[in-house]
Specification:
By secondary structure, this protein is α/β, with parallel strands linked by helices. It contains 14 helices and 18 strands. The longest helix is centred in the middle third of the chain and has 17 residues. Bound molecules: zinc ion (ZN) (2 copies).
Length: about 450
């Protein structure tokens, strides 16, 4: 069985396999039934020994990290990020995007193809695979587009793109407007393999909307995007998937109507899965009253009722996983009138802390549920789920749940700073990440402590 390290459709720069002892962390991995203080010895990038806290000592050449008071969690996997390369490297690139991922505790990410040029042919995909092999700090998987140029007119060479390493397909940023085109894509998927992921939106219903259509948009006098723009497409595409016996994944669901459509589809036996973002789980259209363009994203932040339905669906497992939809934009693009600003928020560096602060601390969700849903995002694309268990490759993060910090005060690892949590005080700081057996991130404070205990 392949791991995140040697998976044929994940790509990262080679790194020195980690040799270190994590001493006294509270290990918490619901899948591995781990929930106790422990020592974790990583040798050659693998979890070589797992013992009671204080029971292991570091062999020669391995560093000891004093993790007392920290939690060791399985590393997170993000099934939906925008790394903006090729074409928009002023917003993000493979290096900065994966640095942001590592800083957020992510050990693998899946990049979207709405780049410039679009990842719709082998040459573009192969050059990204090469680039990731030189620059990516954590393994990256790539989705290719369903249609050429995201234009919705002509399918890409899906089988060829799969051979060249595509994990799956999406026209993210845009819906597949034509039902016939989606049907054809699902028929080709049978031969090509790979998951088809869908950004669900009916352009005829979204129109020129810039935020959720409801009381707040009426008060602000802004054009709205109704919830039915998303939910009618979820229902339509579930029906097509069911008819074709095919599998689809719904990206970034945002509304109670979409949750209902998803539930009906699963009930009917359709092979569907879904993701939800930290911002849709924690913010609402009330936040848009500030007219801060950091709160402008697509799908838009909706109402408290929608937010609640998403939280409950994530809790029950109806929604399968968390995805950040990390969408970097440059300051000059975002710092314009709300109506003119591009849609999207960054999210890799704040995902865990936002969910921990806004949902776990108030008692809305168990920490274990957050861990499960933040680690399972690659599973639907056939990637292994990180586990803290003997013999597994080290894919884990150390988190200081007691640490508070102001988002953005110390800058961002991402090249962009359009984070919807900017300026908020969040709890739960990732201090170290080991991805595919390689140390990918280490907080400065921990560096000092680590050096002392050496
Ligand atoms: Zn999208
Ligand atoms: Zn997206």
């Amino acid at each position: 069985m392949s791991t995140l390290t040697d998976h044929p459709r994940l790509f990262a720069r080679p790194g020195q396999p980690a040799e270190l002892l994590i001493q006294g962390a509270h290990g918490l991995d619901p899948r591995a039934e781990l929930d106790e203080p422990c020592d974790i010895l990583v040798r050659q990038g693998q979890i070589a020994e797992l013992g009671a806290s204080g029971s292991l000592s570091a062999p020669a050449g391995a560093e000891t990290i004093d993790a007392t008071g920290k939690h060791a969690l399985p590393g997170f996997v993000d099934p939906h990020v925008h790394l903006r390369t090729p074409g928009q490297e002023y917003k993000e690139n493979l290096d900065t995007g994966t640095a942001a991922a590592a800083a957020g505790g992510f050990v693998a990410v899946i990049a979207m193809p709405n780049t410039d040029p679009v990842i719709d042919d082998s040459a573009v995909l192969r050059s990204l695979v090469d680039g990731a092999g030189r620059q990516a700090r954590v393994p990256v998987g790539f989705l290719a587009s369903i249609t050429r140029g995201l234009a919705g007119q002509e399918l890409t060479e899906m089988a060829q793109l799969r051979d060249d390493g595509a994990l799956g397909f999406t026209d993210d940023g845009k819906p597949v407007v034509s039902a016939g085109m989606l049907r054809k894509a699902l028929q080709y998927q049978r031969l090509a393999g790979g998951v088809i992921a869908l950004h669900e939106e009916d352009p005829a219903l979204s129109g020129d909307g810039v935020m959720h259509e409801g009381g707040v948009s009426a008060r602000l006098g802004l054009a709205g995007i109704p919830s039915i723009s998303e939910s009618t497409m979820v229902a339509r595409d579930s029906a097509i998937a069911l008819y074709e016996g095919a599998r689809v994944h719904f990206q970034h669901l945002s509304s109670v109507e979409s949750v209902q459509a998803l539930a009906a589809a699963k009930e009917a036996g359709a092979q569907v899965s879904a993701e939800v973002t930290p911002h849709h789980l924690t913010l609402t259209d009330e936040d848009v009253l500030t007219l801060d363009s950091r709160f402008k994203m697509n799908p838009p932040l909706r109402t408290e009722q929608d937010r609640n339905a998403l939280v409950r669906a994530l809790d029950s497992g109806l929604i399968d996983c968390v995805a950040t939809d990390h969408a970097p934009h440059a300051r000059h693009e975002k710092e314009v009138a709300f109506e003119q600003a591009p849609m999207g928020t960054t999210g890799l560096e704040t995902a865990f802390a936002a969910l921990y602060t806004e949902l776990v601390l108030p008692g809305d969700l168990e920490l274990e549920v957050i861990i499960e849903r933040m680690t399972s995002g690659g599973e639907l694309y056939g990637l292994p789920v990180p586990r803290i268990a003997l013999g597994e490759p080290a894919n884990l993060c150390l988190v200081d749940l007691g640490a508070q910090y102001e988002v953005g005060a110390a800058g961002y690892a991402s090249r962009s700073e359009n984070c919807c949590f900017h300026g908020r005080t969040l709890h739960g700081k990732v201090v170290l990440t080991i991805a595919a057996g390689v140390l990918a991130y280490r907080e400065r404070m921990l560096q000092a402590a680590g050096a002392l205990s050496r």
